[in-house]
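Office hours follow-up: a student asked to see two folded examples consecutively, so here they are.
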Amino acid sequence: MSSDAIHVFAILTAAEGKADPLRAALSTLVPETRKEPGCIQYTLHEASAAPGTFYVYEVYKDQAAVEAHMNSPYLQAVLAKAGPLLGNAPSIVPTKQIA
C-alpha cells in the first residue's frame, strides 16, 4: 500500500430510534464509494454492544481521493439525509498507517 494512502476512521451514532434509517442510509454509501478510482477499502461496521453506533473504515490512495469522495454528489446526499438521524456530530479521523 502506498505511503501516501490515507486511512479514515469515522464514527456515527444514531439518535434514539433512528438506528434503522441511519444504517440504511450509510449502507448505500458502500457500493458507490467502492467504485471510486481512489478508494482502496471502504467497510461499514456496527458496534455489537451498542447497536446504532456505526464505524466506517476507509482507505484512499491519497488526499486527492479523499477530497473527491467528500465532494461526491451521492455522499453529500446521504450526509444531508443522515443529519437528522444522528445523535451527535460524527467523529472523522484521518490517519496514516505506521505498522
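And the second, which I mentioned at the end of office hours:
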Amino acid sequence: MMKRSEQNKECKDEIKTAKHARTEIPGIVNELVSTCNKGGCFDHVSAEPIPYREAIIDILRHSARILYPGYFIRTRLDQTNLEYYLGQEVTAFYEILSEQIIVALRHDCIRQNLACIKCEGLGQTITVEFLKSLSGLRELLAKDIHAAYDGDPAAKGYDEIIFSYPGIWAIMVYRLAHQLYRQGVPLIPRIMTEYAHSHTGIDIHPGAHIDESFFIDHGTGVVIGETASIGKRVRIYQGVTLGALSLSKADCKILRNKKRHPSIKDDVILYANATILGGQTVVGARSVIGGNVWLTHSVPPDTEVFIEKQDLIFGEKKFKKQAVKKNFS
C-alpha cells in the first residue's frame, strides 16, 4: 500500500506538470495571432460584424412557424389567438431578419469596397418586402405539398408530409432563400440552403428557378445548381443531379454569371440517380428520364430516355457441405 505522504508527493508532482503545460498556452496564442496579422489564412478580425449563422437558422424556424401556423409550436392555435400569434411571430421575425440583412449588406459593401448604399434603411426596406412575399410563398408551398401527396401513394396525409418529408423542408428553405436572392441579399440565402442541405441531403442553390408544384421524392443526394431552371409539376427522385460540366479555372471565371445548368420543362419526371449536365441542355415537357441516365444534350418533348436493360445472370446458389460430428455419448 502507498503511504499517504507518497500519495501527496505524487499529487503535487502532477499539479506542477499541469502548471508547466499551461505556460505553453500564451506562446500558442501569440503564434495564432501572428497568422491573423500576416494574412494568407481566413479570419474576420474586424469591428464590423458579419451575419451570424445561428441567427439565420433561427430565421428559418421562425419562417416555418409563420408559413405553417400551428405545426411547429407546443401550444394550441385556433381562431381566438391566431392574430396574436402571427403578430408576435412576424414582429420577432422582422427584428432578427432585418438585423442580419443589414449586417450582410454592410459586410458585402465593405468587402467589395462599394459606394455607400445606406445599409440600415435598405435592409429594413428589403425585410418589409420579404415579409410581404410570405402570403404568396404560403400559396406556392401549398401547391408543393399537394404535388407530394398526389405523387406519393405512401403519403397518408398532408400533416405527415409537412412534418416528415425532407423534400418539403428543403423546398421551403429554397423558396425563402430564393426570394432573398432575388432581392439582392448577399450570403444569407446560401447559408440557408446549405443548412437545409446538411439536414436533408438535398442541395438546392438559392439562385435556381423552380416553378410551382415541385416534388422531390426521398431526396437524398439531389443536387440542383445555381442556374438550373425547373418548370411546373416536375417530379424528381433521390440522387438526381442538375449540374454543370466540369470547367477549368479560366472557364469558371468566364462562366461565373452565365447559365451553366440544365433547363427542365413542365411535367418532367427524373428518376433516381439521373445526371443532367450543361447550360445548353433542355429536357422537353412531359419527358421521362430513367434511373442512372447520363445526359449532356437536349431531349425533345414527350420523350423517354432509359438505359438499355443489362443482361441478368441467374445461377444455382451452391452451398458448401460441412461435415458435422455428432457426439451421442
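Two things to take away from it. The mean pLDDT is 90. Residues 47-201 form a domain with the serine acetyltransferase, domain 1 fold (CATH 1.10.3130.10).
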